[in-house]
């Protein structure tokens, strides 16, 4: 493909043909692809070129000459620009279709013939997140919280995050003001100076309990006793931690986690069970949609009470414990030790006796099970974005579970893995469940049945 004669800062009119998986408008100049921020299919925009690469480039819409009927008019551009809610300029009904289509595209690319159902959306697709991790920086002499501009580490100051529980937004602001009161400094990334890098807040949807984690570059924070007392003055804060992360890294939490006050965990409920959540444990961020996701996944497992089930990538045990009353036995496998401790406690708290939990990598544990000729009837997998490890596919083919329920947060790796399993498994329809409204993230559930 010929690179057209365009360069950074050029301005030109573009016609938007499609929406990329990241939610950017796709335009062509000759045959050259440009990904355009804040532009929707069918729109004509005046754009400025941000970057021209070898095979594609990036641009930003400055004004819209012809608007899409699917554009949400009154949304603040800051949400699209910062990446907290990069699809918030697209009508919600269209976001749901976009997610269904993305799954179809990834299946087609992998030459898989799989029906994709309509995306199960939310009635109120805002303010759903039960967890925030907001970056903190020292800006104009003040500790400031906000969100990164997309694809950068430039902080845009923000107080209303649109998709987070408003009580979390209020708590971030309150904590920020307490830190300012005691002259604590925000992180200065370019100089590797300053103190607070991130404020993390979790709020349990059902119990209202909150956990605050202050992530600091340094251990010493003057007035930490006063800061602790001020933060704990809100009776909803059940747990306050200081985490130390002195590394140059994008990973949010460092190794040292110190409880400053309150309990080591908070409690929440899903589908009638109580769960304890530690700061490092994975916990689904959309509480109402989690119940729909789990119900769907458990339905697809078609349990009769006689099956041995593995809940792989089990986090704090929520999927396994949600189906334990319909199975003979459940084993959860999870690599984060704190999460496994939570899972064991969660089984006990809920009086569930037919579930156990193992610390380890799913691929390593199931490889050993294959060698030991252990039997599994149903395998639930809920891996992180990178999907299943290649070696796990071999173990699955040795263990031969009758059914697999694949919960995925990344259509591309889902399609790759389903293709690898399609010789030995019949692949049923896939259902996207919108766990992340206003963003381009796509969660889905697919059932596989042994041929
Ligand atoms: C998407 S979360 C799902 C957690 C849980 N099923 C839930 O619904 O809350 C993925 C989990 O897999 C864990 N994990 C990542 N790689 C793993 C691996 N190779 N083996 C086992 N667990 C892994 C992560 O720590 C995380 O808890």
From TrEMBL:
Matching entries from InterPro entries are given as: MeTrfase_TrmA_AS, MeTrfase_TrmA_CS, NA-bd_OB-fold, SAM-dependent_MTases_sf, TRAM_dom, U5_MeTrfase_fam
Residue sites binding S-adenosyl-L-methionine per the record? 284, 313, 334, 382
Q: Domain of life here?
A: Bacteria
GO molecular function term, any single one: rRNA (uridine-C5-)-methyltransferase activity
Could you name the active-site residues? 409 (nucleophile), 409
Residue stretches spanning the membrane: none
State the family named in the UniProt similarity comment for this chain.
Belongs to the class I-like SAM-binding methyltransferase superfamily. RNA M5U methyltransferase family.
The protein's matches in NCBIfam families, at most eight in alphabetical order, are given as:
rumA
The protein's name is tRNA (Uracil-5-)-methyltransferase-like protein
Q: Which organism is it from?
A: Companilactobacillus nodensis DSM 19682 = JCM 14932 = NBRC 107160
